[in-house]
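Curious: explain these tokens?
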Amino acid sequence: MPIYEYKAFAPGGNTKSGVVDADTERDARNKLRKDNLLVSKLVETRGGRKIKRSKEGKKSDGLLARAASRRAAQVGPRARENEIVAGITRQLATLIGSGIALTEALGAIVDQSDSRKTETLFREIREKVQQGYNLADALERHPGYFSELYINMVRAGQAAGNLDNVLSRIADYMQAQRGLRRKIVGALMYPMMMIGLGLVVVTILLTKVVPEITSMLLDQGKVLPASTKLLVGVSDFFQSFWWVIFLGIAATSFTVERIYKNSPKGRLRIDSTLIKIPVLGDLLLKAAVGRFTRTFSTLLQSGVPVIQGLEITEKVVGNRVIGDATRHIRVRVLEGTDIASPLKASGAFPTVVGYMVAVGEQSGELEVMLDRIADAYDEEIDVVTERLTALLEPIMIVALAGVVGYIVYAIIQPILQIGQI
């Protein structure tokens, strides 16, 4: 059933906006008229996006759904929308676990939604479920909000009859991934702030302070020492060709981003280089291994088959080195081997991970062992994050002090020479 976004006048002259589900635009207007609302604007929406109809005719429902899905997949959800979905997933798990029917639980989510997009999204999902779709198929129509991992876990949970438990695991997984992302961003935030502050200070010195002082000295006919001449040359170059510097930085960033997104070999080379950087590489590798074990464990616990679980995990680990190793493991498992042997042979995972996975397979508790590995790596990430911050802080301070100190020395040196004369 289509969803319509409306604006209308309520009794007393107040304006009201919202969404309403109806078979046709005429039915939507009739529904609103029964609520004493005079419609001023009515637009059909899908997933929170307005649909424009051509004069020649209407597109079929299937084509519109696929087009909306492609656009959503290209744009992707914002971080806030991702957090909202995680919170709603936990609420849905609680409602279903309390014995409430799925359609009623979805209706409760719709009624308490604070966001127009969220309300429209779950109205559409509820309508599809009422039409006979299972929940996974209804979610699959909105790939911008629900990942392949999310959809497959829901499908496995429905097949096993433990959808509430699976939804709880999904919510826990999304919360753990957000926590991991915050740790990594937090570890990199301080050095990035220091670099930014340093660039601002050096830019001001080179473009404002150095030219004024050196021009004053040159006007007096003084011979500048070598250190000051070098500084003047750098300052002149920066003032004349600053746009070349920023254009070069922008071009380099754009090129690296394009290579990382569009070239598997380029992404593999970049990720291989990053994990070899002291301390930072250790942090990135531990984060990728932790994401692998947590994702694979969550999928297995939700009833997703091993082969499909490895295929999904390959796409979400966020590191091409671990992703390629995961694909190699999946191929070997298809050939009939266990998981631990190709995992050890890949060389991408720490040795201890291979041995713990082997123990988990032999004991029949692979999911539990993977969870333990993920927990251990979460703790190690905390340690590496603190070590990275403690290491980068003095390095950045010394580097910034060295650059600023040289600028100050190059400015003061000719002034001191004048004083001696």
About this structure: The radius of gyration is 29 Å. Confidence is low (pLDDT under 50) at residues 52-78. The CA atoms of residues 60 and 416 lie 82 Å apart. Residues 163-219 form the longest helix (57 residues).
